Amino acid sequence: MTRDLFARHRAVLPDWLALYYADPLEITHGEGRHVWDAAGRKYLDFFGGILTTMTAHALPEVTKAVAEQAGRIIHSSTLYLNRPMVELAERVAQLSGIPDARVFFTTSGTEANDTALLLATAHRRSNTILAMRNSYHGRSFSSVGITGNRGWSPTSLSPLQTLYVHGGVRTRGPYAHLDDREFIDACVADLEDLLGHTRAPAALIAEPVQGVGGFTSPPDGLYAAFREVLHERGILWIADEVQTGWGRTGEHFWGWQAHGRSGPPDIVTFAKGIGNGTSIGGVIARAEIMNCLDANSISTFGGTQLTMAAGLANLNHLLEHDLQGNARRVGGLLIERLRAVAAQVPHVREVRGRGLMIGVELTRPGTDEAAPEAASAVLEEARAGGLLVGKGGGHSTSVLRIAPPMSLTVAEAEEGAAILERALRSL
Predict the structure, then answer these.
(1) What separation in angstroms does the CA of 332 have from each of 9, 79, 356, 391, 408?
(2) Which single residue of 7, 130, 161, 354 has CA 20 to 30 Å from 113?
(3) Across 84-111, average pLDDT
(4) For the segment 304-315, what is each residue's pLDDT rounded down to a tens digit?
């Protein structure tokens, strides 16, 4: 049955639509931190639909909210008042840390980043954007144009002029040998030099932890130091929190808070986990920025009643059950467990991450050369053992991406670590 579905998939869907595994997997249902395939096999899910199933599969509160809302009305567009949308926007604005915040809902992180770029370029009257090397911001024409990861950038054509800045990757590149303070100083100097060679940009867009790039991040405080340089010149800071938001990193509710010394970002984008699988993205910005557009706009599907009901129920569950604290505690245990394993596996160059956002970088033993074949082999072996993980990386890196639902238990973390250990040792 799965092979037949695969053949049908290939017949009608694009060749560039990526699928995991030599024998692709059809997931039919899930519960908690587990999913089942079409053959009835159970897996521990350590990737959550690309960090999207944030709280749990089939979370009762979300399921109930969606069913009740679907029984009333599913959709009306933004042309009409929408109580669930207003209620979720109020919660998000209050949690954002941005003064006088306004919220606009979209259907995805790509669309959220696209909107943020529209706002920043319109507000600043500039089409120049600063972005980080190794970054990923989506698959639309404009977001591909600022993505600093060749593997996810299918065209060099873009409506924007993009300039790439050092700093998103701590352990590779020309500044890797420096200590944290020196690393930040070198990246700031590079930014200041870059700004001396170009017209004033509209904004810097940056992921606090680079997701597709392999869960890489700079030392805490880098973006705060960048913010000081940008603020002097009126350049906006866009924090792409599509993967880092809602407490996943454990230490902070938003990833930007590790860099909050100079104040919050001007614009924050979010998506993925807030909907727990329903299609929610969004942009938070100060009123003067959000309201700068001088033409009408709507969103047909952004903020639909069904997704807003799901988002409200999911956010309430996350806050009431302190899943940020759970991500910090269980994620910390999982990272230490994996680091202990890594010390005995020559293919592992580094285990990095925060909370339940963990990367395991693989290289050819004794070198810094990427080992994509090893990453694929571990992915297959982990699946055979009953564990689903992701992979990523950019600029000749290969990384296993581990991001389970934030309700992961200690016992499940131990179970997943044991399966991953066997998969890594099988190399």
Answers:
(1) 39, 45, 8, 20, 12
(2) 354
(3) 97
(4) 999 999 999 999
